[in-house]
Amino acid sequence: MSITSKVTAVTAAALAIAGIGFGVASAAPTEEKTASDEKAASAATPVGPGTTIIAERTDGSRTRCTVAFVATTPSGQPVALTAAHCALPGWKIYVDGKLIGETDKSSRTEDSGSFAPDWATIALNEQAEPFAASDKVSPESVGKARVGDEVCLQGSTSGWQCGEVTGVSGYRIWYDLEDAPGDSGGPIIRTSDNAALGIHVAQVSVFNAAWGEAHSLPDALSEAGGYDLTTVNGPAPAPEASPLGSLGSS
To answer: Does the model's pTM come out above 0.90?
Structure first.
C-alpha cells in the first residue's frame, strides 16, 4: 500500500491496531489464542503527528521525544519528522517497544552546537504504519509561520496546548507556549487552516519569560532534499524555503 493511501486520521482503524493485545496466558492455549498472539506480534505500529518515540543513542542510552509529521522522500519512501537532537545519525527509534526505524537524515551531529538547525527524518521500516493525521493534528498543507498566528503543539508530555506566534526569523519560529521534556519534535500546526508550520525543538527562557521554539517545516523539508509532507489531502510540497533558512547549517 502506498503512503498516499494512508492519509487519513488515526481513528478506529489505527486504534484497533494499537489495541490488539496478547491474551491471558493459560496452561493449554487454544489455536485461536495462539493465532491472535501471532497477529498482535506482527501488527504494524501507528506512527503520525504526536506519536511518542524512544530514541536509542549509539551508547545504548535512551531519550523520549515526539513525532512532528510524516513525509515521503523523492523516491516515495515514508519518513517521520522530529527534532535533530532526538535523532542524531545512527540512532534507532522505537514506538511501544517496537523498532520502527532509524535516523534517515539529521541536521546535527554529536559535535553540533545548540544553535544549529534542529530537524531530522526517520526512515520507517515495515513495523511502522505511517498516518498523515492523529486525533488532534490533521495537516492539510505546509505553511509559513506569521507573527500573530494561532498555533498548537501536540507533545508526548504536555499533550495539546495552543498559543500565538510571537516571532519568526529565518528557520526559527517562536510562540508563547511552554514545553516539558519529551515534547521535543512535536508538531506545530496553525489552527486557522490546519497548515503544518514547524517542528518543536526547545523552550527559550529570558528574564523569567518563556517561549517555545520550532524549526520551520518548509525549511526542514527543503533541506532534507525536497521531501513532501503527507497530509489528509495527499502529498504536499513545501513552499519556498525562507531566505535565511541556510544560516547555521551544519
So the answer is: no
Instruction: Convert 176-232 into a string of H (helix), E (strand) and C (coil).
Output: CCCCCCCCCCCEEEECCCCEEEEEEEEEEEECCEEEEEEEEHHHHHHHHCCCEEEEC
Q: Report the distance separating Cα 48 and Cα 58, nearest Å.
A: 24
Instruction: Assign 67 to helix, strand or coil.
Output: coil
Burial (CB < 10 A; 0-12, 13-18, 19+), residue 83, is buried
pLDDT tens per residue across span 103-112: 999 999 988 7
Largest CA distance in the chain: 66
Distance CA 7, CA 174 (A): 28
What is the grid cell recorded at 198? 514547524
Q: Which residues contact 10 (CB under 8 A, 6 or more apart)?
A: 46, 48, 131, 133, 134, 135
